[in-house]
Amino acid sequence: MLVASGIIALLILLTALFVAAEFAAVGARRSRLRRLAEDGNSLAARVLPILESPHALDRYIAASQVGITLSSLILGAYAQASIAPRMSPLVARIGGLDAATAESTSAVIVLLVLTTLAMIVGELVPKSIALQDPTRTAIWTVVPMKWAEHVFSWSIDFLNGSGNLLLKLLRVKNTGHRHVHSPEEIELLIAESRDGGLLEPQEQVRLHQALRLGLRSARELMVPKARLASVEIETPFADVLRVVATSPFSRLPVYRVVPDDIVGIVHTKDVVTVFVNQRTPPQSLASLLRPLSRVHATLPADHLLNHMREKRIHQVLVVGDDGEVEGLITLEDVVAELIGGVSDEFKGAPARAILLPDGSVRLPGAMRVDQAAQVIGADWRSPGDTVGSYIPRMLGHVPAPGEQVCVKDVDLIVEAVEDTAVSSSLVLPPGRPEDVS
Q1: What is the CATH number of the domain that holds 374?
Q2: Residue 29 sits in which domain range?
Q3: How confident is the model at residue 141 (pLDDT cuts 50, 70, 90)?
Q4: Closest to 46 measured CA to CA, from 122, 138, 121, 153
Q5: What pLDDT shows up at residue 415?
Q6: Is the pLDDT of residue 174 over 70?
Q7: What CA dihedral angle connects 53, 56, 61 and 66, to 10 degrees?
C-alpha cells in the first residue's frame, strides 16, 4: 500500500509539473528572461529560445499537454488496479454488499477521491503558482520539460500534424502559440501594473496615450488653417522681422498671394542670421524658404510621427482628398498627444473652457470642437476644427459681437470676433436664454 501511495503521489506531482510548465511558458516575460540570461542564468538562457520561437513554444506546450493527459490516464488506471481491489473487502463489510457491487463501489470512490486530489494538487495549485511568478516557474521547470519533450517527440509530431491538418480542412490559419496581446489586453496589463504599484498614475496615462496614438488622425491634431500665423512671400523684410519678433513660433508658413497657397516655411533663425550678417536684406523670402512636406488628413498620428522622424522635419501641411490645405501640424502637437501639452515662456496656456459662477461656460475660439463638446455635453462633431471657425460655419455667417445664436441646440452669446472667426463665446446654462450684458 505504501508503494502504491508513493506512485500515485509521483503521478500527481508529474501532472502538477506539466500544468505549471504550460502556464509559465505562456505567461513568462521575455524581457525579464533576456535580462537574466544576460546576467549569466543558464536556465533562463534555455527558456528564452523557446518563448521567442512560435514553433518551439508550440512543441513545448504540446509536450505539457501530452504529459498532463498521460499522467492523468496512468493515475486513474493504476489507482483502480491497485487500490480499488484492496478496498473492496472493507466496503463489502461496511455496506453489507456482495463482492461485485463492492468492487464497483470501491472503483467509484477511488476515482472521485483521486480526481479531486489531482485537480487540487495537480492543477489548481500549480496553476496559481505559475500565474503568480511565471518567469521563475518557467526557469525551474525547463529541464524536466526538455526531457519530456524529447521522450514525447514522436507523439508531439503526430498530434501536431493531425491538428494542423484538421485546421487546414476547417480553413483556420494556425499561428502557433505566441505572446500576442490586443490593445485592450495591453491596457488591462498597464492598469494591473499600476494597481500593483509597478507604475505611477502619470506613467499609466502616458502609456495609455501612446497606445491610443494610432487612433488619432492628422486632422484631429492639426492647427486649422484659419489659425495659422503665416506671412506672404513678397512681404518686405522689415515687416518679416517684426512678425518674427512678435511671434511665439520658430517656424512660419509662407504663402503666395492667398493664404491657402502655402509654398514653404521660413525659420526665424534664418531671418535673424540674414539680418545680422548681410547689410542688404533680400527682396523676398524666396531665398530663405524651406520645403514643407504634405500628408493626408486621415494619416494616423503614429504613422505621422514616423514620417516626421524619417524626414527629419518638425512641421507638415495637412491636406484633404481634394489636395486643399486644411491645416498644419507640428512635432510638438504629436508629442503633446503623448505626454500632454508643453508650454514655455513665449507661448500662452492651452485654450480651456471657463465655468462661470452663474453656470454659463466661456469657450475660447482656439479650443478644439471635440474638447468643447465634452465640456458642455453638446453634439458637436468636427475633427480638428476649432470653436471659433465651427460656429460661423454652422450658422452660415459671421455673427456680430453680442449676438445670441443657437448652434445644434446649444444657446450661446458671441462675445468677441476676430476677422471671420469667433474668438470668445458664452454658452448659456439651461433655462437662461436671455441676453447677458
Answers
A1: 3.30.465.10
A2: 2-169
A3: very high
A4: 138
A5: 85
A6: no
A7: 170
